[in-house]
Amino acid sequence: MTAKQPMYLAGAEAAGIVLGARVPIMLTSRADGTLSRRASAALAPLSVRRSSCRAP
């Protein structure tokens, strides 16, 4: 609930992505708007690029 409060009270946008998986997993809610969904989609390739730069 704490994560949703800034969205409702301040009009903030949020993006959801699972870290640590082999492939990016986007987490979106049915209540999320277009901007939140696009932000999640934009973060997915960035997380892949960032994880591939690290040494195993």
Comma- or semicolon-separated keywords:
56 residues, 2 strands, 46% helix, elongated
Model description:
The protein is mostly helical and 56 residues long. The chain has helices spanning 5-10, 34-53, and strands at 17-18, 25-26. The protein has a two-stranded antiparallel ribbon. It contains 2 helices and 2 strands; from the N terminus they run H-E-E-H. The model has no long low-confidence stretch (mean pLDDT 77). Strand 1 (17-18) and strand 2 (25-26) form a beta hairpin. The longest helix is centred in the last third of the chain and has 20 residues, at 34-53. The chain has one domain.
Short description:
It contains two helices and two strands. By secondary structure, it is mainly alpha-helical.
List how many beta strands DSSP finds.
2
Mean pLDDT: 77
Largest sheet: 2 strands, antiparallel
Number of helices: 2
CA distance, first residue to last residue: 35 Å
Beta content comes to 5-15%
* Computed structural class: mainly alpha
Taken from the alpha-carbon principal axes, the silhouette is elongated
Layout of helices and strands, plus pairs?
Elements: H1 5-10, E1 17-18, E2 25-26, H2 34-53
